[in-house]
Amino acid sequence: MGIKILYFASLRETVGCAEEVLESLPAGVATAGALREWLCARGGDWTALRAGQAIRAAVNQNLAHAHTAIAEGDEVAFFPPVTGG
Amino acid sequence: MGIKILYFASLRETVGCAEEVLESLPAGVATAGALREWLCARGGDWTALRAGQAIRAAVNQNLAHAHTAIAEGDEVAFFPPVTGG
Amino acid sequence: MSVSVQHTDFDLDAETAHLASVSHNVGAVATFLGYVRGDDALAAMTLEHYPGMTEKSLADIVSQAQARWPLLAVRVIHRIGRLLPGERIVFVGVASRHRGAAFDACEFIMDYLKTRAPFWKKEETEQGARWVDARDSDESALEKWGK
Amino acid sequence: MSVSVQHTDFDLDAETAHLASVSHNVGAVATFLGYVRGDDALAAMTLEHYPGMTEKSLADIVSQAQARWPLLAVRVIHRIGRLLPGERIVFVGVASRHRGAAFDACEFIMDYLKTRAPFWKKEETEQGARWVDARDSDESALEKWGK
C-alpha cells in the first residue's frame, strides 16, 4: 500500500517534487506532524517543512492537524496557506 | 406659491387623489404633522391620515418627521411605508 | 455612481462588465438581484414610485455607502410598472478592491433602499389586488449599520 | 448545489438565470465575482490547485452554508490556470427567498473558500514570478461566522 505524499505551490517548487510514494510508513511515524518532521529531517530544501514555517497539511483530501493520524494507504499533502478566490 | 401635496400607493387610492395644490398654507399649519392633522380633519376617507396610522411624509422629496417645517412653495408627500426592492 | 429607475429589464453581463472595467484595481464585484416571487398564485406585481424623490433617495443611499467604504463603482437599477413572477425588480452592483467592502456596501444599499426609497408594490392574484405590507424585518435590518 | 473547477470563463447571465429559475420562491440572488487586479504591473496570474481535494472542499463549504441558511440554490465556479488582469477568477451565486440569507451565505462561502479551499496564486510581473502570500485578514474574516 505505502503512502502517497503531495506537495503544492511554493513548497512543491522548493522541494522540487510534486508527488512521491513511500513504500511504507517510516518507523515511529503515525501522524501528519510526525511525517512532516521526518521529511524535514532529510535536510537541504526539505527544511522548508521545519516547525514554525507556515505549512498546512491534508490527509485524504481533508485539512489536517499535526496530530491527525495517518496510516498505510493514505494520501497526505503539504502546502502553504491557500490564496485562491 | 401655494403648497403641492402628493399621495401615493394605498393612501392615494383611499383618498382618491394623487395630487392637489392648496392656494396657501392653512392658518396655523407650519409642519408636516400639522398639515397631516388638517387633512385628516376633512373627515371621511381622509381619516386614513389619522394619528396611529402608518403613514410617512416627505417634504421637498426628503423623508420628513411630524415636526419638519413646511412653507409656501414646498412639495409635501404622504404615503404608506415603502415596499420596493 | 449611477442610478436608474426604468420599466425595462437590464443587461446583467453588460452592467457587471462595466463595474469591473472602471479601474484595474477592481478585485471584487458583489451584486444583488431581486425577483418577483411566484407565491400564492401571484399573477403580477405593479411597482409604483415617487418620480424625482426616487432618484434622489437612491443617489443619497449610494453616497452614504461611498462615504463608509472604499468603493470603485456602484450601480443601482430599480424597475417600475407591471412585472410578472420570475422577473427582476432590482439590481445593485458594487465594485471594490477587496470583497469585504463590496459585500457590506451592497447589503447596506439594499437595506436602505428597502426602507427609504419611495417604491410600493401592489400584488395581483385571483382574489384581487392588494398593496404589499412593509416588513418589520426590513426596518430592523438597518440596525446592523449603526443608525 | 453545483461546484465547478475549470480553465474556461463562464456565462454570468446563464448562471444567474439558472439560480433564479430553480423555484418560483426565489426572491433574492446574491453573487460575488472575483477578478485579477492589474496591480503593480502584473502581467498574469496562474492558479494552481489540488485536484480532488478542491471539489471536495468546495462541496463541503457549500454544505455548511446550506445547513446554516434556507438556500434554494448555490453555484460556485473557480477558474484555474493562467489568467490575465481583468479576468474573472471566481463566481459564487446564492438564491434564497429573502435577501438576508442570500447575502450571508454568499459572503460565508467566499470567506471559507479563501482560507480552506486548496488554490494558490502565482503572480507574473516584469520582475519575475512570485507566489502570493496569504492575507491575515482572510483568516480573521472567518471569525464573524463564529468558528
Explain what you see.
The complex is a heterotetramer, with 2 copies of chain A (85 residues) and 2 copies of chain C (147 residues). By secondary structure, chain A is of the alpha+beta class. Helix content of chain A is 19%, strand content 25%. Chain A has a single domain (3-79), classed as Beta-grasp domain (Ubiquitin-like (UB roll)), CATH 3.10.20.30. Chain A has helices at 9-15, 32-40; strands at residues 3-7, 19-22, 56-59, 62-64, 75-79. In chain A, strands 2-1-5-3-4 form a 5-stranded mixed beta sheet. In chain A, β3 (56-59) and β4 form a beta hairpin. Chain C has helices spanning 12-21, 53-68, 99-116, 136-141; strands at 2-6, 28-35, 44-49, 71-79, 81-83, 88-96, 119-125, 128-131. In chain C, the strands form 2 sheets. In chain C, strands 1-4-6-2 form a 4-stranded mixed beta sheet, with helices on both faces. In chain C, strands 5-3-7-8 form a 4-stranded antiparallel beta sheet, with no helix packed on it. The mean pLDDT of chain C is 96. The chains are: A alpha+beta (85), C alpha+beta (147). Chain B binds chain C through residues 6, 8-10, 54, 58, 61-63, 77, 79-85, and chain C through 34, 47-50, 52-53, 56-57, 78, 89-90, 110, 113-122, 131-135.
Question: What is the gist of this entry?
Answer:
The complex is a heterotetramer, with two copies of chain A (85 residues) and two copies of chain C (147 residues). Chain A has 85 residues and is α+β, with helices and mostly antiparallel strands. Chain A has helices at residues 9-15, 32-40, and strands at 3-7, 19-22, 56-59, 62-64, 75-79.
List keywords for this structure.
heterotetramer, A: 85 residues, alpha+beta, Ubiquitin-like (UB roll), five-stranded mixed beta sheet, 2 helices, 19% helix, 25% strand, globular, C: 147 residues, four-stranded mixed beta sheet, four-stranded antiparallel beta sheet, 4 helices, 8 strands, 34% helix
